Amino acid sequence: MKQEIHFVTGKGGVGKSVIAAALALKLSMQGKNVLLVELGDQSFFKDFFELGEVGFQPRSIKPNLSLALWSGESCLREYAQYLIKIESLAKLFFDNAVMRAFINIAPGLPELAILGKVTSGPRKYGPPMNFDAVVVDAFATGHFKALIQAPKGMAQAVQFGPMGEQSRSIINVLKDETISKYHIVSLPEELPLKESAELAAAIKEELSVHPSLVLNKMLDVKVSRETLQKEEQNSSSDLGKFALYLEQQLDRQAEMFKQAQLQHDSIKQVPLIFELDAWGLVEKIVEKV
Amino acid sequence: MANRIFDNTNVLVCVGSGGVGKTTVAASIAILAAKEGKKVLVLTIDPAKRLAQTLGIEGTNDVTRVPGQNFKGELYASVIDHKKTFDDFVERAAQKSEAVRKIFDNSLYKQLSTNLSGSQEFTSLEKLYSCYESKQYDLIILDTPPTKHALDFLKAPQKLSALFTEGVAKWFRDPEGKKSGFFGHLIQAGTRQVLKVLETLTGSQFIRELGDFFLNIEQWQGKLLQRTIDVQRMLVAPTTRFFLVTSFDQAKLKEAEYFSREIRKGGYQLDTVILNRVFPHWLDLRVGYEGSTAEQDLAELYSQMKSYYNQRDAIYRQFETKMSQQARVLRIPDLVKDISDLAGLEELSTLIREQETL
Ligand SMILES: Nc1ncnc2c1ncn2[C@@H]1O[C@H](COP(=O)(O)OP(=O)(O)OP(=O)(O)O)[C@@H](O)[C@H]1O
Ligand SMILES: Nc1ncnc2c1ncn2[C@@H]1O[C@H](COP(=O)(O)OP(=O)(O)OP(=O)(O)O)[C@@H](O)[C@H]1O
Ligand SMILES: [Mg+2]
Ligand SMILES: [Mg+2]
């Protein structure tokens, strides 16, 4: 079986992490061995799921489900160790102050290192990754665009040597829709939707793939319009105000959904769930993703 | 701690992770200050189209007097154009026009000036500083670019200048090693292996490209370092304050606590945390459930939602208690509508004002 790679992206705060976790949990419940990956150097899930340490090496958090935190520097470090095979030499390299400053700032290098690691399974490059699926809780819009543009930029700037070769093989994996899937999370609100439309266009243009839209926090109301309107008459009561709020939200949501349909081929809807427990929330979303 | 968010303040920096409402809140506070008679400039980043129209800054990067205002003071706004600000900086920093052209043509520069994490933070501060230097405003409010964590904003420019202080450019000055530049420096430092590793990892062509890039930008070093120092001085001045906008969830609140501690360590003043979009504006948690004749499904949804927000309220209170030593916490409701006209911004600013005086 081919390894699947799922990238979950979207505007800040729209629910990327929660949707990524739900997707990972869902795949793991189907019997796949799943790795959920966070990017950067601070873990969100550590506090969210109240876990102990979360680091570069995957740790199991549920049956069939592991979690890891990958930064540009840690990915590069592993890549270096794999290539040079001498740990002390790799250490010397990364402990060098100039090198550290350089690695953190060199255009595209951290991005390339992360993508190299994420795609290392299908490329059969680097330490083995024994997972059937990798779900990446990826960067928000702007940084995600920079992430997927990095290999092309690098391949153009450096045609020869390992950087160019690696870049080209990463691009091949990112463009292969049997392996790589892209999920853009958004909200039924104007600004997030506008950003998702632009992001979808950018991903299509860069990789010729078809990202899908996940419309999160949709109010799920089973009450009829008549009932709402009846209750609204009682405008001084809290319930009356609630009914009015629901109706306004439903109208706005319907309009936003129409707009989203014009911009995206595939849309999944995830309801707003009144649940504060982290796993409780994620479990309830599983059926929807 | 000042009474008001902008008392005795010339610069107000609005930080927070992506999507929490920084731009909206920054504009609302600007209105609040203008109403009180101040000459205010709000520097926004990527505002929504309609908000930009409201502020009169759609399609322009110039500082613009916000149209249709009738305040005691005056409100000005501007959108920060990162590419242009970066290019302007380079033009000023590079002494010869020949050098400027060479830099603009370098493909790595093109990436650095627009794409690189850190460059937007740099240009935001650069723009802020040049407006600050002009001394034309009583108060400048800076919106900040979307980052994963609030703290990233302050770390980014330092990352950029670390590159120069650590002398990377020196490494590349003489790639052939004729003048004991690149190689010489390494051998001197006894770290010839470090170079070998870099070459194994990236290939020699990559190193050449980078060398070219660093040689071109080396001349900025002095200007950049000076600028970093000036900007830093402005940021820790007693008349500069930060406020954090954050949304709800336990992880975010923890981050806010961490942020407030770290920012204090850095010598900055953070005295307000704004919890944005905490409850829908109509919800009054003090009112108990009325047990009316309403339809079952509606009543159920209502009590579900209410108990959810009640639990959140408890978490907010804990957070407020924890933070009370360090900063005041303001809660802003979700207005459940698009906030893009002056009326909407004013509504939000009134809510902020009410919270301040609680
Ligand atoms: N369907 C939902 N129903 C209710 N709450 C939700 C839902 N989806 C997400 N949330 C809540 O919304 C908040 C933001 O979600 P999350 O942290 O996943 O967003 P994000 O896009 O990853 O944010 P960031 O850009 O900061 O990483 C969290 O408090 C989360 O619990
Ligand atoms: N209190 C509020 N009530 C209702 N809507 C709000 C409120 N605050 C912000 N919003 C809405 O939330 C959305 C995001 O706000 P905004 O663009 O200001 O966030 P931001 O932090 O600047 O985002 P980014 O990090 O992407 O720049 C906007 O559509 C805005 O109108
Ligand atoms: Mg997240
Ligand atoms: Mg903004």
Structure description:
The complex is a heterodimer of chains A (289) and B (358). Chain A is of the alpha/beta class and 289 residues long. Chain A has one domain (4-220, 265-286): P-loop containing nucleotide triphosphate hydrolases (Rossmann fold, 3-Layer(aba) Sandwich), CATH 3.40.50.300. Helix content of chain A is 54%, strand content 16%. In chain A, strands 3-4-2-5-1-6-7-8 form an eight-stranded mixed sheet, with helices on both faces. The model of chain A has no long low-confidence stretch (mean pLDDT 91). Chain B has 358 residues and is α/β, with parallel strands linked by helices. Chain B has helices spanning 22-35, 49-55, 82-93, 97-105, 107-114, 119-134, 152-165, 168-172, 182-189, 192-202, 204-217, 221-236, 250-265, 296-323, 342-356, and strands spanning 11-15, 39-44, 64-65, 74-79, 139-142, 240-246, 270-280, 328-334. Chain B is globular, with a radius of gyration of 24 Å. Chain B starts with 10 loop residues before the first strand and ends with a helix. In chain B, helix 1 packs across helix 15 (342-356), helix 3 (82-93) packs across helix 6 (119-134) and helix 10 (192-202) crosses helix 11 (204-217). Classes of the chains: A alpha/beta (289), B alpha/beta (358). Chains A and B meet through helix 3, helix 4, helix 5, helix 8 and helix 9 of A and helix 5, helix 7, helix 10, helix 11 and helix 13 of B. The structure holds adenosine-5'-triphosphate (ATP) (2 copies) and magnesium ion (MG) (2 copies). Residues 16-17, 44, 137 of chain A line the site of one magnesium ion (MG).
